[in-house]
Specification:
single chain, about 325 residues, mainly beta, Methylamine Dehydrogenase, Chain H, 5-stranded antiparallel beta sheet, 4-stranded antiparallel beta sheet, about 0% helix, Exo-alpha-sialidase, WD40/YVTN_repeat-like_dom_sf
Length: about 325
């Protein structure tokens, strides 16, 4: 996940798919190096994907860029740090897998990383049911402190720190914000005719975007439109984005934001918009990945099934599949 102010991208999803630390992740470094983490380890390419070198046995991790050159790699059992663009890694902290702690955000504050997570902890009343708890660490994951959170903490989903506040999401698709971790927390009202959210996004300028599923069922069929809404005043006013002429049935799904440019799907076409009103079709190909990554060479995505990196070629309007030499197939058993 590309985090606010930490990497090349200027927005991140709220929440991303909840990290399983098994499906793989892609990072594009500022110098153009590509890094992939999946079930066979961590791999790096410095020749635009023509060949890959294994840099670590750390498997199934997610990348978190911090500061100018720092890069964290988190998997189910450890926190790891690289200061040379992913060429070498140092283990910073271990934790037991049975804590089921999921890292969602890492911030560099005056040279000291703050890590924000959601953990499964034993219920206070000693009942059998575990509860979710927001936590943060000031010592790179060695010790963890609980964070105050909105009510119904058993539905905690994700937590993010941003320049203009802290955001948490819950499994019931609600999103809350506070300017101070001590609270109070305020729920951000959803857009009109809102049924449920599939993804939330937050950009560096304070805009909140949502892919909203809106029930437009009739008596004869059950249908849900996918619409993009955005707000800049924490949900007091929502604007529906509609790229191009209105009047015909069109589904839009926001996939990523980079330097104020929106990348989205429109009726199975992959498009972008720099002004939030008009669209430029980039490719008619089906979007091959799940999340976008942005770097000096443009737009990338990772298909996690066979762990293949794809690069958007705007000239040919295609997704170019990069090489896999040295990048093991996770289904080969090797």
């Amino acid at each position: 996940m590309a985090l606010l102010g930490l990497g090349a991208a200027s927005a991140f999803a709220l929440p991303p798919p909840i990290p399983s630390y098994t499906m793989g992740d892609l990072h594009v470094a500022a110098n153009g190096a590509l890094l992939v983490s999946h079930t066979s380890g961590t791999f790096r390419s410095t020749d635009e994907g023509q060949s890959w070198q294994k840099t670590s046995g750390i498997f199934g991790g997610r990348f978190f860029p911090v500061g100018q050159s720092g890069l964290y790699l988190v998997n189910q059992s450890s926190l790891n740090l690289s200061l040379d663009g992913g060429a070498n890694w140092k283990k910073i902290a271990d934790w037991l897998a049975n804590t089921a702690r999921k890292i969602f955000d890492i911030r560099d504050s005056a040279g000291s990383a703050r890590i924000y997570a959601v953990a499964r902890v034993a219920a206070a009343d000693n009942s059998q049911a575990d509860q979710s708890q927001f936590q943060f660490s000031r010592d790179q994951g060695k010790t963890w402190l609980p964070l105050p959170a909105p009510s119904s903490t058993e539905r905690c989903c994700a937590i993010y720190a941003a320049a203009h506040g802290y955001y948490v999401t819950r499994t019931d698709n609600q999103i809350f914000k506070t300017k101070n971790l001590a609270g109070p927390w305020a729920e951000i009202p959803p857009p009109p005719a809102f049924d449920r959210a599939s993804e939330w996004f937050l950009d560096a300028d304070g805009w909140i975007y949502v892919n909203a599923l809106v029930d437009v069922s009739s008596n004869s069929e059950s249908v849900a439109d996918v619409r993009i809404y955005r707000t800049r005043d924490d949900g007091q006013h929502w604007e529906r984005l509609w790229f191009g002429p209105r009047g015909k049935k069109t589904n839009f799904r926001l996939i990523g934001i980079d330097k104020k440019v929106l990348y989205f799907e429109c009726n199975n076409h992959f498009c972008k918009s720099a002004d939030g009103a008009t669209q430029q079709r980039l490719t008619d190909q089906f979007f091959p990945g799940t999340e976008l990554r942005f770097g000096p060479q443009g737009v990338f995505t990772l298909s996690t099934g066979r762990v293949t990196v794809h690069h958007l070629n705007e000239k040919t309007q295609n997704w170019d599949t990069l090489g896999t030499q040295g990048l093991p197939d996770p289904f080969s058993g090797k």
